[in-house]
Design the sequence.
């Protein structure tokens, strides 16, 4: 697949997570579960990560860990062994834990690993860590809450990264929808994480399919 739409679930309770998950898990290749701690980002979501194994088609889980102490979650992530796992570069500030966390997950899981970057952080901060990850994720706005306006700097940041590292896949998260699909894809993003555009109104499967077709149309234009 040349481009992937990844539905993103951001909920505070397991029951609400499961409800959204069941509405889309059969259609999507992966479904992102957003985990926030109320400190690094958001107001705090359900964080008993190991329980996600109970979800139907749990082999499709992509964890987006928006937490200020990544090292505290390594054992739970390893137990879950998701398809993908993403931590934020900024969440490691002031620690030397980044390499340890990623090397531990590489050893204990088969997960594809990514590092996320917030809009205000320069791309150069990613470079020393690229050997640890399979892909990178650019945030279109600061993490924690859905449906914020896009910070337009993200399009330049993605384009600059793709020009310099054309062989490293790029994901994007942040107001992915009908009005942003084209600039995101043209900038170079190939995995697009969408929450509001899929779950807010209508049938999530139909919304997912519309976004997928729009993204693929940009590539073939």
Sequence:
């Amino acid at each position: 697949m040349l481009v992937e739409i990844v539905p993103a679930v951001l909920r505070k309770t397991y029951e609400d997570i499961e409800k959204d998950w069941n509405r889309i898990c059969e259609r999507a290749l992966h479904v992102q579960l957003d985990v926030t701690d109320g400190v690094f980002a958001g107001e705090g979501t359900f964080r008993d990560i190991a329980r996600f194994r109970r979800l139907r088609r749990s082999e499709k889980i992509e964890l987006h860990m928006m937490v200020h102490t990544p090292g505290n979650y390594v054992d739970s992530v390893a137990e879950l062994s998701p398809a993908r796992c993403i931590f934020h570069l900024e969440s490691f500030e002031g620690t030397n834990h980044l390499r340890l966390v990623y090397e531990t997950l590489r050893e204990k899981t088969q997960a594809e690993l990514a590092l996320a970057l917030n809009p205000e952080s320069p791309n150069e901060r990613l470079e020393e860590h690229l050997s640890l990850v399979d892909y990178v994720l650019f945030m279109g706005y600061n993490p924690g809450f859905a449906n914020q306006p896009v910070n337009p700097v993200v399009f330049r940041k993605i384009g600059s990264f793709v020009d310099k590292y054309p062989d490293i896949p790029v994901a994007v998260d942040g107001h992915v929808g009908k009005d942003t699909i084209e600039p995101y894809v043209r900038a170079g993003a190939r995995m697009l994480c969408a929450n509001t555009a899929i779950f807010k109104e209508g049938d999530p499967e139909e919304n997912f399919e519309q976004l997928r077709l729009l993204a693929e149309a940009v590539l073939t234009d």
Summary: Strands lie at 4-9, 31-36, 61-66, 84-88, 112-117, 135-139, 170-173, 191-194. The two ends are 16 Å apart (CA to CA).
